[in-house]
Structure formats: C-alpha cells, structure tokens
Design goal:
With 595 residues, this protein is mainly α. The protein is built from 32 helices and two strands. Strands 1-2 form a two-stranded antiparallel sheet. Strand 1 and strand 2 form a beta hairpin.
Length: 595
C-alpha cells in the first residue's frame, strides 16, 4: 500500500483529497509535489528513511519541518499511516484509483469482448482456409515439378490430338488444375452461378508472364512451370484454334511466353525442359528467331550446360538461321569444353569467314590444336593472326611452341623463336626459351642448349630452375655429365636450390657413363640435400641407383659403395636383395659367387 501510495503521490498535488491528509500529517501542506516525492522516495530504500532525511543537515534536498525525529521511527510508522487513512474519504480514494488504472481496465475489457466475439464466429471450410492462409505453402508444394515435368516433350508436343484425348479422359484432373493457386492467392477461377468458370488461355498466359516478371524467386519459377503443365496445356488441347489465334487478344506474344518458361526452367535447374519447350513451339507453329536461340544458349552456358547449348545450335541450324560472330566465338568455347575438338575448329573457321576472330577465339582454337597435337594447324593459326594484324603475344607463341615440341618439330620451334626475337618488341619470354631448350633436350643437342642459355642471358632474362634442369637433361642425354654438374654449380651461384628433378636427372646420368668416385659423392650430397622433397618411392629408387653407380666405380670401389650403403641405411631405405648381394661382392676378399 505504501509503494502504491508513493506512486500516486508523484502524480498528484498536495492539495488533492488523497495528498492532503498525508501532507497534513507530515506538515507538508505548503510543500510542492516535488518536495513530497523526494521525501517519500527515501522510505523503501533505508531502514530509517525519515530519520536519515532529518539528520542530513548539509543536503540540498527540501527538508521537512523541524519535528521530533523519533516520531517518525519505524516503530510508530504503522500508527502514523492508520491515522492518515482514517481521515481519507473512501470515495476520493476510489476516484483516484479509477483515474490511475481506469483506462487500462477499459482496454482490457474491450479486448476480451472482441476476442470472445471472434471465437464465437463459425469456422471456414478446410479447403478455403488453406487457400486464404496457406497460399505460399501451397505454392511451394504444388510447384515441385519433378522429372515427370520432363515429359512435356514425351506427351507428344507435335501431336496436339493426343493431348486433347488426355484432357477428355481426365476431367477430374482438369478441375484440379483450375484451382491451382497463384502467387497472389488467386485460385485461377471465378465463382458465379454456383460454379467455377475455367480461365481462358489468354488469362493463364498473362498470369504466367506478368507474375514471373514481378516475382523472380525460385518458387515462382516452379509455379510457372507447374501452371503451364497442369493448366495451360490442357486448355490449349481443349480449344480448336492454334495458340497463335488464341493469344491474338493477349497482351503478350507466344514467343514471350516460351522465353519466360525457358528462363524459369534454366533458373530452377530443369535444363531438360528447354528442348521440350522448343518442341512445343514447333508443334504450335511458333517460330524461333535468332535472338531466342542466342539468349537460350547464353543462359545455358552460364549454368555450364554446354551440351544443351550445342543442341540449341543444331535447332538453330535446322531452322535455317546463321549464328552471329559473337555466337560463333562462344560456340568455339562450348565445343572445346565438351571435347568436340573438330567441331570447335569448324566453328572457328566459320567465324574467320565472317570477321577477324578475337584474341580469345584464337587462344581457344590454339589450345584445341594443342590437345589434338596438330602442330601444322597451330602454326597456320599463328600465321593467320599475323596476316590479320592481331598481336601475337608470348602466351599464344608459347602454346604453338609447346605443340611443335610435342610433335617433335624442333626446326619449326627454332624458326618461330627466331622470328619472335626479331619482332618489336620481342614476343619471347623465359617460357619460350625453356620450350626451345626442351626441343634441344629431346634431340640430345647439348650445344644448342648452351646457346639458348647464352641468348636468354643476353636478352636480360634470368634463368629459373626449369631452365637449368632442362639444360642438364640435354647434357645427360648427350653423355656430357661433367658439364651437367657445372650447371649445378651455376644454378647455386644464381641463388637457386637444386630440387628433386635436378637430383633425378643427374643420378640417371650416372647410369649412362662410368662414374668417378667424385661424381658418386656429389650425387650422395645432392640426394641428402633434396631427399626431404622426394616421396618414399622416389627416394628408394634414387638411393638404389646411386648404390648401383657406386658398384661401377673403378677406384676405391668398396669405400665408395660402403659410403653409399651407409647413407642409404641412414635415410631409412631398406636395401633390396640384389643390392645386398652387390654390396657383398664389392667387399675385398669376398668369396661370394655371382648368381
């Protein structure tokens, strides 16, 4: 009661009927409501609020009259309030209470009455309730057009008579299609005369096109496909006129309808429906312009459906249309992606007959020639670029060089590199010289490899690890192992570290010649340096190769072999039975006979 009284006193004046007795008791008849509020607010916070209030002489808070503090001790607080409430008028208290909580009580009673009135209303039928409250949920469930949706073509789109037979044989299904909900909650029918009027073809088409433009979500794309399958096709089959005639008064053309459906099918991932829609268009006599094909191929390519994009080109060609230069350039990439290399070349030739191909088209067809290993065609494409004044950069040049090296056309590689060096600016880079080195290495031409290294240094290019490894391979193949080891020293001088390829090339060279003890020790040191980069299989192979080379050393054979065998065991390599026999035979004074 005291807390409620404190709340009420904060909102009323000391001159009100409720505040007057309380103020008179404390001698606060002349005090302001703020002073009274300050006084009362101390009561629930301390054990002896009134005495605390009177004892704070230095406080700036308005103080009570100078009365005896003991009068306001907690022991006499009950008597004080009893005398206060006796002087209060009951009607005044009720009036103040009503003013405080009357509005809340009225709002509660009105709300309760409204709720009871709503609960007393009769419930809607289950079907209508679902249509009004669960429209979006119904759309989601009804829009799941599964694999059976792919039967748009299997339902004989080229024979409308079969569709009409299906529609006549299933009137109940037709009635269910009429009640297919739209995204806005419409049932697709108009009630009148106690029955539902089926919508016309024009109404359904307008709804599909317009709703899909307004709502671009996946649910609405599913809904449009479902509405076409379940309602529009039966409506068309029931009519005796063609779709063109039926849509004469529509705000949209038949082509716009099918363009919308194709877009929906691609967006929801039902790419197989695209061909079915094209068959439906042919069945209804709707021509497909070039823009329709290009838009469809572009959308399919964005989903990486290159096979279907090429199928669209087949239909385009069947309709007697010719693709544009941009479309031809895209078709080269489509065919290359699906592995139809010859078709990609044919598309490039068609593009070249129309206009100068783009650098992207050139690069694509060059990669196609590289996959086919057709060096002659690659060089011819490069010459075509030069004739058309298309800049041949190092990337295009390197693809052609690699194709020629694969075809063992080293002379052509040398010629192309010489031409590129003479261009302004030169088109060659370090990759070009490495490719030329590979051509010399395949032929075992150590002198040619040395010349290449001198040329690239003269160009101001810095050799990399591939450069040195390829040159070492050329030296090893030419049985010039000491020069290969000199390249290792030069490689380290250039700030490069030997790798597993370096180690493999040099150890392979030990088996081709009669190695010296120094070469075997160098191979062991190199193997120790690079063994962390080698896998278990490669490490086993390399250590056994070094051990076999150590057995061929003429000077201090047993010492060199023992060193190789010891390092092999330290590396955790298990020696083979043949290696153990070879090791025993290399020991001085061994009486073991060869197997």
């Amino acid at each position: 009661v005291f807390l409620r009284l404190t709340y009420d006193l904060r909102s009323c004046s000391t001159t009100t009927q409720l505040g007057r007795p309380f103020a008179r008791t404390f001698g606060l008849a002349s005090r302001s409501p703020a002073s009274l509020t300050c006084c009362i607010s101390y009561v629930p916070l301390t054990k002896d609020p009134l005495s605390t209030y009177f004892s704070s002489a230095s406080s700036s808070t308005p103080r009570l009259p100078n009365r005896n503090p003991s009068r306001y001790q907690p022991s006499s607080l009950r008597n004080m309030f009893a005398s206060t409430f006796e002087t209060m008028n009951v009607s005044a208290v009720l009036t103040e209470v009503w003013q405080a909580i009357g509005s809340e009580v009225i709002i509660f009673l009105v709300t309760l009455a409204f709720a009871m009135a709503v609960r007393s209303l009769p419930k809607l039928p289950a079907g209508k309730d679902k249509e009004k409250t669960g429209t979006q949920k119904t759309i989601s469930s009804s829009s799941k057009l599964g694999k059976s949706g792919g039967t748009l073509a299997s339902q004989s789109p080229a024979a409308p008579s079969k569709r009409s037979q299906g529609a006549q044989a299933a009137p109940t299904r037709s009635s269910s299609r009429n009640s297919l909900p739209s995204p806005t909650g419409s049932t697709g029918s108009t009630s009148g005369g106690g029955g539902a009027r089926p919508r016309s073809v024009v109404e359904v088409v307008n709804e599909i096109v317009e709703r899909t433009k307004e709502q671009t979500g996946m649910k609405f794309a599913h809904w449009a496909l479902q509405l076409y399958q379940d309602e529009l096709l039966p409506r068309i089959a029931e009519e005796s006129h063609s779709l063109k005639d039926l849509m004469a008064k529509s705000r949209h053309q038949p082509l716009e309808l099918y363009s919308t459906l194709v877009n929906c099918a691609i967006r929801v991932g039902k790419h197989h429906l695209v061909e079915a829609f094209c068959e439906d268009m042919s069945a209804h006599g709707i021509s497909r312009p070039l823009s329709f094909y290009e838009s469809t191929m572009r959308q399919l390519a964005s989903q990486k459906q290159y096979h279907l994009a090429l199928a669209m080109y087949d239909l385009l060609e069947k309709d007697g249309l010719r693709p544009s230069a941009v479309t031809c350039s895209c078709l080269i990439g489509f065919a290359a992606e699906v592995g139809e290399l010859q078709r990609a070349v044919d598309f490039f030739e068609s593009l070249a007959s129309m206009t100068t191909p783009s650098i992207r088209a050139y690069m694509t067809v060059l990669r196609v020639h590289a996959k086919r290993g057709d060096a002659i065609a690659a060089v011819e494409t490069l010459r075509h670029m030069q004739r058309c004044n298309v800049t041949v950069d190092s990337l295009a040049l390197n693809i052609v060089l690699a194709t020629c090296v694969t075809a063992d056309q080293s002379s052509v590689v040398q010629q192309l590199v010489s031409e590129a060096e003479a261009a302004a600016p030169p088109a060659t880079d370090i990759v070009s010289y490495n490719t030329l080195l590979k051509a010399y290495a395949q032929r075992g031409d150590a002198n040619g490899a040395s010349d290449v290294i001198r040329k690239l240094k003269a160009r101001g290019l810095r050799p990399n690890a591939i450069t040195f490894n390829t040159a070492m391979d050329a030296m090893v193949r030419a049985n010039r192992l000491p020069e290969a080891w000199l390249l290792v020293d030069e490689m380290r001088t250039s700030g490069l570290r030997a790798d597993k390829f370096t180690c493999s090339i040099l150890i392979k060279g030990l088996a081709k010649v009669t190695p010296t003890a120094a070469e075997v020790h160098s191979a062991l040191a190199l193997l120790s340096e690079t063994e962390s980069a080698c896998d278990v299989s490669l490490r086993n192979t390399l250590y056994h190769a070094v051990l076999e080379a150590a057995m061929q050393v003429k000077e201090n054979r047993h010492t060199v072999a023992a060193a190789a065998f010891a390092q092999l065991r330290r590396a955790g390599v298990v020696p083979s039975a043949a290696a153990q026999r070879s090791m025993l035979q290399s020991l001085p004074g061994s009486g073991v006979q060869q197997a």
